[in-house]
Specification:
Helix 14 links the parallel strand 7 and strand 8. This protein is about 50% helix and about 10% strand. The strands form 4 sheets. It has a 6-stranded parallel β-sheet with strand order 6-5-4-7-8-9, with helices on both faces. The chain contains 24 helices and 16 strands. The protein has about 625 residues and is an alpha/beta fold. The chain has 3 domains: about 160 residues, Substrate Binding Domain Of Dnak, Chain:A, Domain 2, CATH 1.20.1270; about 160 residues, Rossmann fold, CATH 3.40.50; about 210 residues, Rossmann fold (3-Layer(aba) Sandwich). The model has no long low-confidence stretch (mean pLDDT about 95).
């Protein structure tokens, strides 16, 4: 295989050192497998390959302009994109369903391992959705709330419950287009039905339902997951944490949690703090037990408990290459199957916990609501037992950790503003904060690791644009030292003034990927306060290094909600001029926002800034 320059792969020293170690030890990583897969299938990249029936597969090109059934490129691309975002909406929304089931188990007394940590938020959300709360027991209110949320996944309602948060102008747009989200499972099932052979063969119509499916995720599935996680585990507030591979300890037992669902990781955290298990670890020769996070499970623990973050998506394999990890415990989503093989190169065992996410070669320890603590203690003991198997001569922890500030829920932001969103609106009106951009999501080895994520954020804060970060981009911006109050020196003068007065960074960490719903809600709060639509606001969204179905669903619900959305790479739609034109221009006429694709973060910052200037001028500010 051709020798690569590691500087071309990543901007981080910890990543480069672990990539070099992987090369020396013959360990294959995502970058190696990308090289093996290049060049990619051109038909797949353009979205013009159809595998939806066994009259095919069919591909559209110079030889054939239609598939066997007669579908053209527009129809095939729209169907493929519809199913793509359907998978993403299903993933995040099924996470939301798991959260409802957890709260329901607490409310009905079916678990003693989990409790309600934020009763005030429970009552506030319940009242928002019309549930009687005065004089009622906490668990009775929780049960009623779960009933409403379960119905949000079904087919019996005209709209999902949290549409009460949506500005009236936005609701009218959705009504006129026929894309008001009715139920999570209903929209997902209908998307699958519409894309069956012989159903929806009008590309714009298919794309509109794709938007409806994604809206059901953003304003129901993901939003429900966020709100229930706060109720069960506590609403995040600002706290300090640390980030990068330097958070690992060469003299302690290292456990990584990875995935998306805090139901598992919160119990692991309790177990590693158990004095009995700490004493057992010390008996085995370790100084203690060190827990660190990866990806969105890491985000969940970091923002609520201050647990350190070892890395983002493209750091997950490299964390194991350190040779210091006893066990990696996963739940679901964004978990590379390669982690099993890399673990076997060392003493590291991979533990799966969800029946919907088993991995061949890993050990399955099922977590559910009645055995969470028991299973957490079991896997922590497994980690302790593996410590003696570690080869210390192969351990390399490459850097020192970086400090970050985390935990900026909407409630925490409003509290920092003195209990009202009005000071933020005033800062936007005066231009000290010229706009707000949510930078979210993943890494993709097709792009230099975290180069786009970091440089886009850096350019935006220079322009007095406040950045909200979620998911894997959080680790990048933390490592780039943009998540500390002292980092206001990187920002423009107006943003420096506001953030300095509040004692907050110019980039606010607002959560994991499902917590993009916090950004939706924040935009709706501002729009409702001003009496305008979300599409009228000087706001934007970006996923510079995205790769997944979930990211495409997030981008689609952002656009359908009226938020101009930047992507660093295009989805697989370029084989259809109709679908591409709709995404890049046509949606602007329909929903007041569209996608823009630009891999260069500096050019992307300019495009976003132009959008913010236009929206400020239209508002007369």
């Amino acid at each position: 295989m051709e020798k690569r320059n590691l500087d071309d792969l990543t901007i981080w020293e910890d990543a480069k050192k672990m990539l070099a170690k992987a090369e020396r030890e013959g360990i294959e990583t995502a970058w190696d497998r990308l090289q093996q897969q290049t060049p990619h299938c051109a038909f797949g990249e353009k979205g013009v390959c159809c595998r939806l029936c066994v009259m095919g597969p069919c591909r559209i090109g110079k030889k054939a302009s239609r598939g066997v059934c007669g579908a053209d490129a527009d129809v095939i691309v729209a169907r493929n994109f519809g199913r793509f975002v359907c998978g993403g909406a299903a993933g995040h929304s099924d996470h939301g369903r798991d959260c409802i089931e957890a709260l329901h188990a607490v409310a009905t007394g079916k678990t003693k391992d989990y409790t309600i940590k934020d009763e005030a938020k429970l009552f506030r959300i319940a009242a928002e959705l019309g549930i009687q709360t005065e004089g009622r027991a906490v668990l009775h209110v929780a049960k009623d709330l779960t009933d409403i949320f379960f119905e949000d996944f079904g087919s019996r309602k005209d709209q999902v419950s949290f549409l009460c948060r949506v500005p009236e102008k936005r609701k009218e747009i959705w009504k006129n287009l026929g894309i008001t989200p009715r139920g999570v499972d209903r929209e997902i099932a209908e998307m699958m039905h519409r894309t069956h052979m012989g159903c929806d063969n009008d590309a714009p119509n298919t794309m509109l339902h794709a938007a409806r499916t994604c809206l059901a995720d953003g304003w129901a599935g993901s939003m429900i997951a966020t709100e229930i996680s706060d109720i069960l585990f506590g609403t995040p507030s600002p706290r300090k944490a640390k980030v990068n591979l330097g958070v690992l300890k060469d003299d302690e037992i290292n456990i990584l949690v990875h995935g998306h669902n805090p139901i598992v990781s919160e119990k692991i955290l309790e177990a590693v703090n158990d004095p009995e298990l700490i004493a057992l670890a010390q008996e085995k020769g370790a100084k203690g037990i060190n827990l660190a996070g990866l990806c969105c499970t890491g985000n969940e623990l970091m923002m609520r408990q201050g647990i350190p973050m070892a890395g983002n998506h493209l750091m997950t394999e490299l964390a194991l290459v350190t040779g210091a990890i006893e066990i990696i415990i996963v739940d679901y989503q964004c978990i590379m199957p390669s982690l099993v093989q890399i673990g076997k190169c060392f003493h590291t065992k991979m533990i799966t916990t969800a029946d919907k996410a088993k991995f061949t070669g890993a050990e399955h320890v099922r977590f559910d609501m009645h055995n969470g603590m028991e299973q957490a203690r079991k896997v922590v003991k497994m980690a302790i037992d593996r410590y003696a198997m570690r080869d210390q001569s192969r351990v390399e922890i490459p850097v020192e950790p970086v400090d970050i500030t985390t935990g900026f829920s909407n409630e925490a932001i409003i509290e920092a503003l003195g209990g009202s969103i009005t000071p933020l609106i005033d800062a936007i009106k005066t231009g000290k904060i010229r706009g707000i951009v949510g930078i979210v999501g993943c890494n993709n080895p097709k792009l230099k690791h975290d180069h786009c994520n970091v440089n886009l954020a850096r350019e935006l804060i220079k322009k007095d644009i406040l950045v909200l970060a979620t998911g894997c981009v959080t680790t990048a911006l933390g490592k780039a030292e943009m998540l500390m109050p002292e980092s206001i020196s990187q920002a423009g003068p107006g943003l420096q003034e506001i953030c300095g007065a509040l004692g907050v960074p110019p980039v606010l960490h607002v959560g994991s990927c499902v917590d993009n719903a916090r950004i939706l809600q924040a935009c709706a709060l501002i729009a409702n306060e001003l009496g305008v639509d979300i599409s009228d606001l000087p706001v934007a969204a970006s996923s510079p290094e995205w790769y997944s179905e979930k990211a495409a669903a997030i981008g689609t619900y952002a656009v359908a909600s009226g938020i101009y959305t930047h992507l660093g790479l295009p989805p697989n739609i370029l084989g259809s001029e109709t679908v591409t034109g709709l995404a890049l221009q046509g949606l602007n006429d329909l929903v007041g926002a569209c996608f823009v694709v630009e891999p260069d973060p500096f050019k992307a910052a300019e495009l976003i800034d132009q959008r913010i200037i236009a929206k400020r001028q239209a508002l007369g500010i």
